[in-house]
Request: fold
Amino acid sequence: MLASPHVYWGRALPGPGPKACLIVNPAAGTVRAQLDWGIVSGRLREAGWWVAQQGTTGPGSAGSIAARAVQDGCKLLVVAGGDGTINEVIQPLIGTDVALGLIPVGTANILARELGIPLDPKEAAEVLVTGHSRHIDVGKASWPGKPDRYFCEMVGIGFDAATVHGILPEMKLALGKGAYVVSAVTTSFTHRPSRMRLLIDGRRCRRLSFMLAISNTGLFGADFLKITPEATVDDGLFNAALFRGQSFLSAWWEFVAIAARHLKEWTDVEFLTFRQIEVRTARPVPVQIDGDPFGTTPLVVDMVPKALKVMAPAS
Reply:
């Protein structure tokens, strides 16, 4: 539990200034080795911001800190963490004028790479004060009877989601990216294709699929996986790849094709572009959002254009 119901704002400069909140996930990727909180907060204070610093305490705490910071009048929310922490923080930011800043110290840092933000914390901090704000698209995943979930990067249904569901927190902490490889190997022997009933921008179709990858970014789940390289965060569209392989051998062959940048030429993959998709399956199938497990099918995924304000490098 957080120590205070409100974010504390220390007076950094004489006279009033805009408020920024730095949210740090101490368990994220390389945060212990690379991040000195003072690098970021000090640079912001030099630029005239009042800065609050808050560390996360477990799942859900980043979102709680973000919601309180917005209520307290914060104009800039800076996340030092990975894509999962970013996903928590953006929930109260959608449709507001509060900007998201990124200090990428997570495992994959997909959104930061997509926006061209440096992976060095000091250089990323400079983007916060010398860069410019831009609005990017987000997706919205909806389940019957459950709260909606916004996302910046991707939704995976099937094999990749089952892989994510199979990763224990202590395994990820110990192995980093290797945890995904270990889980993927295990999952590949047990996962089976699913019969999917799809409603794509009003058009109905049925597919037998090993995995459905819905992307808002060119990278998918790792810094070398380009399943939908045409995807961009500001075109108002999702790009998706529907994998129709039916065995673990097909899954590994498709993984090789992705790594070799020959997915379209070597595999039986159907590529789709849309603004909305509804996915129903004969049995519940695992779902992952921005690299974290999020329940099972059925669900609806909608595009929400230009809904998130982010800080990006100056062009």
About this structure: The domain at 19-130 is CATH 3.40.50.10330 (Rossmann fold).
